[in-house]
Every structure is written in C-alpha cells, then in structure tokens.
Amino acid sequence: MTIRESPELVRLFTTYTADPDSIGRHLTRAVTARGRNDPLLVATGADIALYPGGGKPPVVEGFRISTKGFKELSGISHLGPAVASLVNLRALLGDGSWRAHAERLLAEVKNTRAANGVELWRDTLAVEAYRGREQEIADLVDYSCAVTARYLTAALADEDYLTPETLRSDFLAGGGDVDLPVPVNDMMVATFFLAGLDIGFRITRWLSAQDIDWERAMVVIAGQQGRPTAGVTWNTSSVATSILGASGGRLPLERMYLAPHAPTFPTPVDGDLTGVIALEERLRGIWCGTRATVELGAVMFDGYPRYTPAGVRFPDVSDTTVTEVSEMPVIHSAEDMRAMVTRLRVVLEDPRQLLSGCVTDFAVASLAAVGNDPTRVVVPGLTGVHYPTDL
C-alpha cells in the first residue's frame, strides 16, 4: 500500500520535533547546558552511578545481583513460589513432568542445607548489614530447607498430596495436620526484608558519603527493573524507594524520572568506568529533555491547577473483611504479618510490582528511624522467632 504524506505538513511537524535541529531538540540542549553542573544519579537494575557534574568522573556502587549474599538469600526466598509452581505444573499438564523438577529442587535443597551454617553467613558471605544475625539466618535457612524437603518428599511419594490446599496448610501458612512451627510465609517476609535491609543500608551510607545537593539532583531510574512490566512508577520501584529514603525526604519527587527504555551501563569490571562515562551525555539528555517539556506547563497554562506527585495511599488490611486491594497495604508494625503476607500476594498479582520489593519500603523506613544502623532494626519473621533445626 502506498503511503501518502504532505511534505509541507510533515516539515511543519519536524520543525518542532523528530529532527536533530528541531525547536524541541534545541530546547533540550539548552536545558541540558543549564544543568551540566548539577548532580545526576542513575540507577540501573544492579548499580547506581553518580555523575557529579562539571566534567567530574562518575562513581558507581553496586546494590543488587552483583553484591554478595543477594543470590544466596534469594534462593531461600523463592522456595515458596518454586514449590507453588510445581503445584500448578501438575494441575496444568497432568503428565508427571513436574516430578523431574521436584527431584532437582529436592536435591538442591539438601545440598543447600549441608552447605549452610553460621560460618557461611559470618565468614564467607559476611554481609555487613546482617552482622550479629548470622546464627538466626543460618537457622532460618536450615529450617526452610527441612520443611521444603519434607513437603517435596511427601509429594513425590504420593502426587495426590501436591495440591494448593496442602501447599498452604502444610508448608506456607500452617493450620493442617503437619507440624509447622514457623510458616514459610513468615520466612519469605523475613528474607525479602533482609534483602531490602542490606540494599537500603548500603545505598543510604554510600549516598550520604557523596554529599549530594538533593534540591538540584537529577535522578533517572534506567532500564528494566525486574520483570518487564514492573517498577515503572516511583512507588512500585524498590530502587526509587531506597533513593528517596536515602535522601531523607530531601529529593523532590518531581526530579525523579523512571525511564524503562533508557540505555544502561554494564556493571564496571575492575574499576573500568569507560561504559559509565560514555553514557553521561545521553542520560543527562534524557532527564533534561523530559524536564524541558515539564517546564512548558507553567509557561503555557499558568492559572490552571498544576500537577504534583502524590504520596502513596496504602490500604489497611487490619480489617479482616477487606478482601481486595489495588495497592500495597500499610504495615503497622514488624508484627503485622497479615499486611506483609498480603504484600507477598500483591507483588505476584500486580504486574507493576517488583517481586523482591514487597517490604523494601518498610525496611528502608525502619533503617531511617534508627539512623541507618541495621543492628537496631527489628526484622519481621526473624527477630524473636525460633526456627528449629532438628526437623
């Protein structure tokens, strides 16, 4: 099919946009030049880079996959959804193919239990934010592996046992005939909180040391954060939550942009910042190009109501008659397990959410309340909880 265009009208279109020398591109360059000395903070899925401005070299801090202990703890966190996936595989396929996956998971759970110990967490992984909790974490891991192995062994012996009902009563929540001293739901809350505690602690300490002028800071959350649909708004991104918490509330929300299609730099290897440096101009252009359009609002529509980012409104599930929520529920305390387990469900069902971000905001807020001292934070599902290791 022949596409017909009007050259004159197309040129009018490109005069403002879609042309390297358009009015819009010229305005972006002007805004970029104005902010060349302002600090630019860019977070990818694994690292944060601070471009101080004025031609100064960037500094980078890793915070997720590239950091020690994250994968090890995440493996324990994911035992719940891993076993639940076996339940659904059996129901969906009905061909017994779930058994090979169950046998592999059982073998790895046994290997993990054998490798686990206080020495692993204290001396090998040595995560600073977990200092003083190593025995508690080792006990949690041992117990989690034991109850997972018990459930998988029973399912492999009798596949009719592998149902949503037994998954919940004998593994996740309790209440069945099987003795379950600590529900695996509580373990998942604890491990996700610990991951958020570590990330929040390190980001806050690192950013505090940079002495950032938050009123002038330009912040971009770049690229994919978790699954393709997740973390695309500041209140569904655990990275955004951590940065806002680290700023002590000084970073204006209007200066944080989430750009899932922005280019990202690779994690630097051996201190090589070549890839990080190469992207500074483009990343500043993305922030400033967005800002240039935002600033047109006041020029064009002064006198009309202005847009302002709103805070998150958390629903309250302490009322047991509440059966549906459209946002993360408010957490009243470290003992509010109903709210936190509800959040576990929300991050699975709400495609906007990061799976690992269910309690990150609570961890960051808990850190802020004690001056970023992780030893003073109460960890839900861990602090004061006894995980028996004789199962």
Architecture overview:
By secondary structure, the chain is mainly α. Helix content is 49%, strand content 6%. The chain contains 14 helices and five strands. Helix 5 packs antiparallel against helix 7 and helix 9 packs across helix 10.
Keywords:
mainly alpha, 5-stranded mixed sheet, 49% helix, globular
Helices and strands, in N-to-C order? HHEEEHHHHHHHEHEHHHH
Mean of the pLDDT scores? 93
Total strands: 5
Largest sheet, spatial ordering of strands: 3-2-1-4-5
Q: What characteristic shape results from the CA principal axes?
A: globular
Q: What ranges have pLDDT less than 50 throughout 5 or more consecutive residues?
A: none
Number of helices: 14
Structural class label = mainly alpha
In what range is the share of β-strand residues? 5-15%
Largest sheet: 5 strands, mixed
Query: Termini, distance in Å?
Result: 71 Å
The oligomeric state is single chain
Instruction: Provide the helix percentage.
Output: 40-55%
Task: Report the C-alpha radius of gyration, rounded.
Answer: 24 Å
Layout of helices and strands, plus pairs?
Elements: H1 7-16, H2 23-34, E1 40-43, E2 47-51, E3 59-62, H3 70-77, H4 79-93, H5 98-115, H6 118-125, H7 134-157, H8 164-172, H9 184-210, E4 218-222, H10 238-246, E5 256-259, H11 274-278, H12 280-301, H13 337-349, H14 360-369
Parallel strand pairs: 1-4, 4-5
Antiparallel strand pairs: 1-2, 2-3
Helix pairs in contact: 2-12, 3-9, 4-5, 4-8, 5-7, 6-7, 9-10, 9-13, 9-14, 10-14
